[in-house]
């Protein structure tokens, strides 16, 4: 594909291609396969809309995607919820059913049903269970689990992944045009927690968990719950065809034999290790496809009534209506994603003003990067005989980084898994268990993932209950305890950093200036750890609340100022027993010095890591001049 087209499809709006009020803005010079992949990315829900209706019922109406879609007027969606409005739609007041959904231009995509709700990636479909004679919009708003609405709403990939174009941001984020959006920038501003808490009040603990979830993160184990609160950053997807691939031993889903395939690692901890296409299929299942099958293999959302059983790909191929059709779409979707290039600051309007003209500082930054960062943050690596010798490896990187073509086709990550203890960042995301043997997504992780050595015990963790008694914790064997190296491509535009978006300022400002303020703050905290929030980054409830699950009390009287993860990393089924024991334990604690309820909570906690912005202190030992030079070079990535 031509370079100009690649830049167009990535994030830069070319002068010869003026903005159009059509998603086809991203369709110039695409091959037929890439065009089909684009359509899949933006519009295909894989039948997931039926799952979200089931979730509304499972949660007693707490989570209802249709009410969420119409809960804010169009001009407030970005500000309040961080949603991306569909440029082909406009506010029009209540529709014939009394729902506040936008009016959108008619758009027929071959082979793809549904209509836009007015929000990118949220698609509406007729509800076959709807009966007009029984419809009452006020009753529906009161009892969404009991009243069948006229529409079902499903998600396409673009809901999470289409975001504001770093190179051509909108003047008004609430009213973007297609040129102001980028297909795979990631919605850094989406407040996912509000989707799962917008119908709750502050007297419910889960309102606090949703309200405090960092923007731009997604807790992908919320429905197939692993009982771990681990919202993780929605990454940009760029340079996919240059991503390092590794040999993984994978079970053949049809025969049960073992295959060796060269695949990409996908998720933060490399759990989706069976290739990009199957990773995409796992995402579709997670957002609703094959819900009759996969919801029956667990107790969705609460996980109280039963443990998970594995979702079997071979069975889905045979019995799930949308599986084969979605599977057939994945190669085209991958072809489309292969066109995505990172945004370079030099290509943004006014971006060059943020880049240094001091060649000496830039060259120093390159040397510092070569000596301290490139071993992990480069897909261009030295030959094995050089890589095994530390001095030769550093010298190889010094020469490589200075080359004009170092950034060309460089994924800026070795994409390897590293023990979380080595990285030092908050380990909650690495603790996820859904891809382990016997768990829901075991078919989507490789044999090698499941056979990783058990991660070392992590010591010295901050104890919010007894600060003078640090916590030690060891993650289970079978896969957890590792993080992949993230790419640094376009990193100037993606702050805050870390897997949980905890490092640096979130200012909800997609302008070039706003992104640079966030970048400067995050890089300062990265290289000068003493500037971080530290224990002030612990997410805590702001008022007294109760833990209520579908109307049933699990734990009463969670004090204001309680760390979210103290309760959110425990199976809620275990809390009722603690609540009943609570008064007695507290009494004994006073008389006999026995363990408090909080101490028991720590013992049951599946990921007792509370400080969000800790770790990754590589580079903190550099001289200040070296740090500042490194920052100047990182701006160019």
Characterise this structure.
The structure is a single chain. This protein is α+β, with helices and mostly antiparallel strands and 637 residues long. Among the domains are: 49-213, no CATH class; 545-604, no CATH class. It contains 23 helices and 17 strands. The strands form eight sheets. Strands 3-4-5 form a three-stranded antiparallel sheet. The chain has a two-stranded antiparallel sheet with strand order 1-2. A two-stranded antiparallel sheet has the order 6-7. The model is unreliable at 1-19 and 587-594 (pLDDT under 50).
**Principal-axis shape:** globular
Structural class: alpha+beta
User: Count of DSSP helices?
Assistant: 23
Strand content: 5-15%
| Biggest β-sheet strands, sense, barrel | 3 strands, antiparallel
Q: How many individual β-strands? A: 17
Q: Give the integer mean of the pLDDT values.
A: 92
Read across the widest sheet, the strand sequence of neighbours is: 3-4-5
Distance between the termini: 22 Å
Task: Report the helical percentage.
Answer: 25-40%
The radius of gyration over CA amounts to 24 Å
Low-confidence stretches: 1-19, 587-594
Keywords:
3-stranded antiparallel β-sheet; two-stranded antiparallel sheet; 637 residues; 17 strands; alpha+beta; 31% helix; disordered N terminus
Question: What topology emerges from the helices and strands here?
Answer:
Layout: H1 3-10, H2 32-43, H3 49-58, H4 65-69, H5 77-81, E1 89-90, E2 103-104, E3 115-116, E4 122-126, H6 137-142, E5 151-155, H7 158-161, E6 163-164, E7 181-182, H8 192-195, H9 205-211, E8 217-218, E9 232-233, E10 246-251, E11 258-263, H10 276-286, H11 291-294, H12 313-319, H13 323-337, H14 359-372, H15 384-387, H16 390-402, E12 417-419, H17 420-423, H18 447-450, E13 458-461, E14 471-473, E15 482-484, H19 512-527, E16 545-549, E17 552-558, H20 564-568, H21 575-592, H22 597-604, H23 624-634
Antiparallel strand pairs: 1-2, 3-4, 4-5, 6-7, 8-9, 10-11, 12-15, 13-14, 16-17
Helix pairs in contact: 2-13, 10-13, 14-16, 14-23
